[in-house]
Amino acid sequence: MEFKSSQILSKLATSDQHAENSPYFDGWKAYDNDPFHPTQNPHGVIQMGLAENQLSFDLIEEWIKKNPVASICTREGVDAFKDIAIFQDYHGLPEFRKAVAKFMGKVRGRRVTFDPDRVVMAGGATGANELIMFCLADPGDAFLVPSPYYPAFDRDLSWRTGVKLLPVACESSNNFQITLQALEEAYKNAQKANIKVKGLIMANPSNPLGTTMDKDTLKSLVTFINEKKIHLVCDEIYAATIFRAPNFISISEIIEEVECNRDLIHIVYSLSKDMGLPGFRVGIVYSYNDTVVNCGRKMSSFGLVSSQTQYLLASMLSDEEFIEMFLKESSKRLGNRHKIFTRGLVEGGIKCLESNAGLFCWMDLRPLLKETTFEGEMELWRVIINDVKLNVSPGSSFHCDEPGWFRVCFANMDDETMQIALRRIRTFVGERKEMDAQVNNKRWKKTLRLSFSSRMYYETSLSPHMIPSISTSSFTTCSCDLNIYLKVII
Amino acid sequence: MEFKSSQILSKLATSDQHAENSPYFDGWKAYDNDPFHPTQNPHGVIQMGLAENQLSFDLIEEWIKKNPVASICTREGVDAFKDIAIFQDYHGLPEFRKAVAKFMGKVRGRRVTFDPDRVVMAGGATGANELIMFCLADPGDAFLVPSPYYPAFDRDLSWRTGVKLLPVACESSNNFQITLQALEEAYKNAQKANIKVKGLIMANPSNPLGTTMDKDTLKSLVTFINEKKIHLVCDEIYAATIFRAPNFISISEIIEEVECNRDLIHIVYSLSKDMGLPGFRVGIVYSYNDTVVNCGRKMSSFGLVSSQTQYLLASMLSDEEFIEMFLKESSKRLGNRHKIFTRGLVEGGIKCLESNAGLFCWMDLRPLLKETTFEGEMELWRVIINDVKLNVSPGSSFHCDEPGWFRVCFANMDDETMQIALRRIRTFVGERKEMDAQVNNKRWKKTLRLSFSSRMYYETSLSPHMIPSISTSSFTTCSCDLNIYLKVII
User: Fold this and answer.
1) pTM (2 decimals)?
2) Which positions fall inside the Aminotransferase class I/classII large domain (chains A, B) (predicted)?
3) Å from B306 to nearest chain A CA?
4) d(CA A240, CA A273)
5) Which residues have CB under 8 Å from A281's CB, separation 6+?
């Protein structure tokens, strides 16, 4: 029986609006197909596209061993099993909300306090992002978002809600800082196009930039949204990843200083980055708007945190001494890692945007572009993933306005793997420069050796291991493009 | 600064479409305000509105004590902590999907097998229900649903998706079984009203009926949806609660026998009822449609099961011997509880719809109605919750077409509490009959004593404990109505 599935399914199911076709996600697939392993697959792809905080797990494991009563799945804690296994109140365990509120305050240097009754649970930051959009905007309404921005925002904020995202371009010329002028312009353009702007959403600390906003900028943003009577959603999921000055300033501190309608202010939070627990799916919406809190709680039903996990975290986050130590140590380790990694890049001649937070660097690879276009960027990206075997993420997938920038994550691997990654990058940059010189030389001589096959190039400059992974790669387009690319540069 | 929140928020946030204003949810609030406790609050409200399976927790607790390595939060299992804490692949842990697929087959008597690659994760059945609607229907499209049906379907299936639910009335005259005639009629009416029907969704075993569908009915439903080229979504979350003959027949068995387009068949599953673990938020969509599986997986991002929980359950569900024993024992305990409970009701003169599954009975209180209307039903419900202090759920909240039916849950309490509940019911029915006789007597004599205040009635017929709980009750409307009601019946 023949049947066109597109007729019977929803538009969501039959369109590509989920935005998971970008290189950001493709890079993950490349990694999955050929993951690096120090002994079993030393020539595999190193995953540098994943913003994970893996540097402080030993601390959490130690805590767990010392606190068996915090788990309902230990002899010491099993007496609580029944009550916790049936707990499905979408308000969340009171102890959990209390602990999260306290933790949020601590991460912000105790300069502000958070009310547990405003903590709304969601399924990770992904769920929290969608939840807040469902509360604030109707299908067709729009949110301004400074670009470059997190690639999955398109999925999280737009896909099922029907909310539009309007990028506000930030530029390298002023270190990608958002300007009021760009904001005003984007707002006006939307009005001209008859699009209802419901708010501004931004990540602070920024993903992918790894930078934080200064007080004046934050104040001006609050003034802007307050004047326009639109919402400000602050994604602060990297709040505890600050590893050097300047310190993080939360929007919760700003609204203590600037007069504004608090009904317009909302924070998205999570434990995925700051505690390094993305698998636990703890997403939080903290809203100063009562109606949003009430409505958001009902929406919590769709993405409740497992009560087993709530219970464990309520206990862990309430351990003040441990949390104090963890935050300090985690920040220190991130700082060390950042320092070693960026130094390694500099040795290879690669600069990054100056940053003070996050689990990644915003790498400036413009000097390596064959042409200053997004095609040139994709070309370079394919070489990096297929030949250099590093999964980094091209700026275009972050909606960056300028080609040549790449996000590279540095906290989801051990020291040895990072060193291998650095070596690969340096070797690549070196070879590239040499090749460029050769090409220029040849161009100058105008002796184009068309008979020199790309295959030969492969076999001489790549390890044997890498050949099959390219030919069996899941992106046929990449392999093709790569062939074309190699032919061009030879 | 004055601000109308309705202007700045979404329609979802400012309307009441979340359907949580029904007596089904109000009853929970009444319980929360005054929860029964055998010693601390013996006159409190007994929760009989919650379909929880609490009879077999001891078995799970025993298993947990014997299997410390199944938890990442034990000394024995902590070595897996890091890998699991970062696991956030929306496909789910391979072992988890495999274990769930196997468990689903086992629950269906091993007559069918399930493919782990078709297991899509969601945040509880709530999330699974919404997910499948997002995949199958656009806003404004409709699904047929036999009534009475689960009250939160309105929230889960409709609220954020914009999908309409069209009830297909089932009647007590044939034990609330669905008829093809009613289905065809509902379908035609929708067409006349220019509503696009995208499918039929039904719970089998039924909530609130506690009954299962026979093979012929299931076959005719498959034929119906196949002819109309619409979807069939089977909510089978009570599959393992069968406690006596006839056995459960899954839709997965039927499509082996009836020719149909499998792209139209989808199952919603969960571990909340069958394993009694609602807090763990394990929802599953099992679809025979590849596009739905692919799209559904992307939607899993919004409601992933905590990897901590996936890990534990992967291990537990894979323990064949334990699961075999658990399913058998759980069914036996449910059967015993059902037998004792329904016998107790019969002694009080209350009949229930004959059932073989579920965690509840569908109680026929029509003889107790003052008038055979939904107002009469609500009147009776308020007395039961405010005076008798039992939270049962009125049929109207299940969209039942006939007034006088109530769902009463029997598996979320211990034996003693159940006996107290039964005593309260029997006392109430006895008093009610006596009162009815008096009223009739008085009416006959036409001596209406208007001076006899309702307050006096309270103080003489209710325990002192109950008075404040009525006056401080959160539903002022209920208290008012109750006063009116009392005045009427005196």
Assistant:
1) 0.88
2) 46-425
3) 4
4) 8
5) A123, A124, A127, A303, A305, A306, A309, B88, B304, B305, B306, B307
pLDDT higher at B436 or B172: B172
* Burial class of residue A208 (count of CB atoms within 10 Å of its CB; 0-12, 13-18, 19+): buried
All domains of chain B in start order, with CATH: 21-55+330-429 (3.90.1150.10), 57-323 (3.40.640.10), 434-489 (no CATH)
Unique residue bearing structure tokens 């099922």: A160
Q: Do A291 and B81 touch (CB under 8 A)?
A: no
Q: Provide the b/e sequence for A417-441 (b: ≥16 CB within 10 Å).
A: bbebbbebbbebbeebeeeeeeeee
User: In A271-372, which ranges are E strands?
Assistant: 282-287, 351-352, 360-364
pLDDT at B57 over 60: yes
Residue type, B453: S
Q: Give the list of residues 6+ apart from residue A328 with CB closer than 8 angstroms, or none.
A: none
Residues 333-372 of B with CB under 8 A from A: none
Cβ separation B291–A130 shorter than 8 A: no
**Least CB-CB distance to B278: which of A73, A88, A302?**
A88
Q: In this complex, is the C-beta atom of B15 within 8 Å of any C-beta atom belonging to chain A?
A: no
Instruction: Determine, for residues A61 and B81 on separate chains, whether the beta-carbon distance falls below 8 Å.
Output: yes
Q: What are the tens digits of pLDDT across the range B357-377?
A: 999 999 999 999 999 999 999
Best to test chain A binding among B65, B261, B262, B306 (most A CBs inside 10 Å): B306
Chain A nearest-CA distance from B288, in A, is: 12
Is the CB of residue B237 less than 8 Å from the CB of residue B125? Answer: yes
CA distance A270 to A123: 9
Residue B467's pLDDT band (cuts 50, 70, 90): very low
Residue B323 CB neighbours (<10 A):
20
- DSSP, collapsed to helix, strand or coil, labels residue A245 as coil
A341-355, B12-26, B355-369: segment of lowest average pLDDT: B12-26
The answer to whether the CB atoms of A295 and B231 lie below 8 A apart is no
Quick check: A277 and A271 in contact, CB under 8 A?
yes
Q: Contact, A128 vs A268, CB < 8 A?
A: yes
Contact B123/A at CB under 8 A: yes
The verdict on a CB contact (< 8 Å) between A295 and B126 is no
Q: What is the ipTM of this complex?
A: 0.87
Residue contact B73–A78, C-beta within 8 A: no
